[in-house]
Write a structure and sequence with these properties.
Layout lengths: L7 H13 L3 E4 L5 E4 L1 H31 L7
Antiparallel strand pairs: 1-2
């Protein structure tokens, strides 16, 4: 919560969402902790792959734009 700079209410909302989607599960009693489920770990792997693909596509887009740029005019 603190590292993500989230309020308690927003943190609780995200935590509930992750639990409802089955991406994490609660363990323990009084000192509850949360772990990623198999589904949650697969989601993270897919998400990280998507981020890499997105970064690659952005780099290729910039490269294509540079290749189409007109050379500066000589004065």
């Amino acid at each position: 919560m603190y590292h993500g700079n989230l309020s308690f209410d927003l943190f609780q909302k995200y935590l509930d969402m992750l639990l409802n989607f089955g991406l994490i599960e609660a363990q323990g009693g009084d000192k509850r902790s949360y772990i990623a489920t198999v589904k949650g770990r697969a989601f993270l792997e897919d998400f990280n792959e998507l981020v890499k693909c997105s970064q690659l596509a952005e780099a290729k887009r910039r490269e294509l734009e540079r290749s189409l740029a007109l050379p500066p005019e000589n004065s």
